[in-house]
Amino acid sequence: RARRADRIKILVWDGSGIVLVWKQLEGGPLRWPPVVDGAVRLTPVEFAALFDAIDWTRVQSTRRFHRPSAPA
Question: Is residue 1 in a domain?
Fold first, then answer.
């Protein structure tokens, strides 16, 4: 993360190599998650929100489980 928190650089493994993604936001700084052991860890939902400049702390992943119907 950049010191001004308005840029993001991400290394992503795409199956055949590493891709560097860099994005600069014009709307101001991002709200970053805490750094733990030198790394920022995000769920896929949190990452998508952060990359789209959405407040990732307000994003919730919904899990819906469907009980299989009993055989007739």
Answer: no
**Among the listed residues 13, 12, 1, the one whose alpha carbon sits nearest the alpha carbon of residue 40:** 1
Cα 9 to its chain centre, rounded Å, is 12
Q: Cα 72 to the chain's mean position, in Å?
A: 43
Q: Is 12 left (phi over 0), alpha (psi -120 to 50) or beta?
A: beta
Q: Does 27 fall in a domain?
A: yes
How many structural domains does the chain have?
1
Token pair, residue 53, equals 């400049």
pTM for the complete prediction? 0.48
For residue range 42-68, list pLDDT tens digits in order. 777 777 877 777 776 676 666 666 667
